[in-house]
Amino acid sequence: MKIALTYNLKRKDDTKPADYFSECDSEETIGSIVAALETKGHSVEAINVEYPKLFSYFNKNNVDMVFNIAEGAHGKFRESEVPAILDYLNIPYTGSGTFSLALALNKALTKKILRAENIPTPDFQVFSKGNEELDASLRFPLIVKPNCEGSAKGISKANVVNNREDLLKIVREILDIYHQEALVEEFIDGKELTVGILENGKTRVLPILEIDFSNCNNSGEYFYSWRMKEYQGDRELGLTPSFHCPARLDRETEELVKEVALKTHRAVGCLDISRTDIRLDKNNVPYVLEINPLPGLDPKESNFPIMAYAAGMKYEDLIEAILLSASERKSLN
């Protein structure tokens, strides 16, 4: 099969915020995906997404499938940009479609869908001006996030607040730096879990991954902040979470968490692959924080491959499974 791998390359730019390119992929990840596909006998060309170049490439080259990991370039619907182009050109691709990608990047809108489906998610409020009155039903501590970002962009330990003054300070910072709404939600103090869904012939819920931050006390980072994701494993910074896969859960709770993740995957309309982030409270209620239809695929550090390995898969088998799921969908159309 002839495959084009579409991606955005992670890079540094001193004129941008430090986390600006965090969602993009490293050369190591791109090389690993190419190698995995070639191991399975496919011909692969990696295409760094620059939109005039992208149109030109597909006008000159016929491909059987696009393996898409591109995060897009601009705006609150950016993850939909490459799939929208591919839909227009009638070229099949892996992963979710334009609607699901746009929806999932909007945390507040996703949470409204979850509520409609009776899927637990923390109570929340959206701030667009920075001077709104706080909903009296919300209880501190609260966490403040950019509403349309991934990879924990804009989130640090300071984003967990215990009073209105600190809340409005962080809200205004997000409005100024990220030029988008701020999502304020109740902070769930409990186990951090993430659940991968993989579709290949049948829908498969991978072993649950538990991220334990108890070794990170020196850093003060006890949840997935941007620093935790960007510098994970750095002992000098105290950013050394431990991972348990399968998670340390009783059978009943495990099944409940998996059920909630699968319902979230389906409610958002994801295809082929997704990863749902969940906080389990003291009463074992699994609260969905967000869903990522474009989870990271770094073979060494990303959560999704860790879960696939726990299910007995090799990296090249995971990549092939994503490709085959999209191929099966193509054959049905």
Could you please describe the fold and organization of this structure?
- The chain is globular and about 55 Å long.
- It folds into 3 domains: 2-95, Rossmann fold; 123-186, 2-Layer Sandwich (Dna Ligase, domain 1), CATH 3.30.1490; 191-332, D-amino Acid Aminotransferase, Chain A, domain 1 (2-Layer Sandwich), CATH 3.30.470.20.
- It contains 10 helices and 13 strands.
- The mean pLDDT is 93.
- A hairpin with a 1-residue loop joins strand 8 (191-200) and strand 9.
- The chain starts with a strand and ends with a helix.
- The protein is 34% helix and 20% strand.
- The protein is α+β, with helices and mostly antiparallel strands and 333 residues long.
- Helix 1 (27-39) crosses helix 10.
- The strands form 3 sheets. Strands 8, 9, 10, 11, 12 and 13 form a 6-stranded antiparallel sheet that branches. Strands 4-7-5-6 form a 4-stranded antiparallel sheet, with helices on one face.
- It has helices spanning 27-39, 51-60, 81-89, 98-105, 107-116, 164-178, 226-230, 251-268, 303-310, 315-332, and strands spanning 2-7, 43-48, 65-68, 124-127, 142-146, 160-161, 182-186, 191-200, 202-205, 209-212, 242-244, 273-280, 286-292.
